[in-house]
Amino acid sequence: MKNASPVIAIDGPSASGKGTVASRVAEALGFHYLESGALYRLVALVSSRAGMGLEENELAKVASGLDVTFTGDQVLLAGEDVAEALRSEAMGNRASDIASLPDVRSALLERQRGFRQPPGLVADGRDMGTVVFPDAALKVFLTASVGVRAERRYKQLNDKGIRANLASLSRDLAARDERDANRAVAPLAPAPDALVLDSSDQPVNQVIAQVVHWAREKLESKPDR
Ligand code: DC
Question: For the chain, which domains are there?
Answer without folding.
Answer: 7-218 (3.40.50.300)
